[in-house]
Amino acid sequence: MAEVSAEARIEAPSGKVWERLTDFGSYGEWNATHTSFPDGGPETLAAGATFTENMKLMGFPAEVLWTVEELEEGRVLAIRGKGPMGVIVGTRYSLADADGGTAVRVDGEFTGAAVALMAGKLKDSATAALNESLRKLAGLVA
């Protein structure tokens, strides 16, 4: 298993950050690993909703079938997906009010036999992508 996380303070109200975070049409503007949603994002954002995303990590393209596992409107979005080579990917976004701004935390995990072969490089690449994504997200909402 490879676990990664990133945190940032974004100088915008949490509602504005949440709106951008859940606007699947604008993912390409801030999400560093996103390349496309071949069928669009989830029709309705709710626990159990599924959607497919094309991504690129460590230079490799991957298609992930995501399921929304947890949704607390304005605060938490957790998704888990099945990728190539039996890799399971989890991503959890958490938002909290922070003195007029928003504290954003992203936690990710990768499991599967293929992950063991490249866990160190995967952690480095995914952590860099999370930090870049939060920087871009902050630039869009601040």
Automatic annotation (TrEMBL):
Note the Pfam families from the entry. Polyketide_cyc2 (PF10604)
Organism, by scientific name, is Streptomyces termitum
Q: This protein is called what? A: Polyketide cyclase
Taxonomic superkingdom: Bacteria
Q: Which InterPro entries match?
A: Polyketide_cyclase/dehydratase, START-like_dom_sf
